[in-house]
Amino acid sequence: MTFNEYQKQAGNFASYPTDALIEVDADEAHETTYFLNWLYPALALAEEAGEVSGKLAKFIRKNNYSVEAQNQLRSDVLKELGDVLWQLTALAGEFGFSMEDVARENITKLQDRKQRGVIVGEGDNR
Ligand SMILES: [Mg+2]
To answer: How many CB atoms neighbour CB 89 within 10 A?
Structure first.
């Protein structure tokens, strides 16, 4: 499955408000209304990423490293990563990006950083 095939299929399950609005009154003459269709998937993406961390934290807290516990952790993490992927895909779509766009942009950025020797470092735009 390609990223774009996933994005198309994932869209069949979208069920969130796409009519959230914010009115910005920049000055008295220019009031603008923005649609915040990205609001739900943006917040839910953070939630799902937190759920991945939660599964890992609870695994450590339980202090049970049996094969069964590790298998359960793998299963739980796989499901939560899928939830992260779904929300990421929805968020990308709300900004008009295909998942191919997101993947290509990321690889291009990483290749550029590696070529310039700044793959390890800090800052979004290094
Ligand atoms: Mg989840």
So the answer is: 25
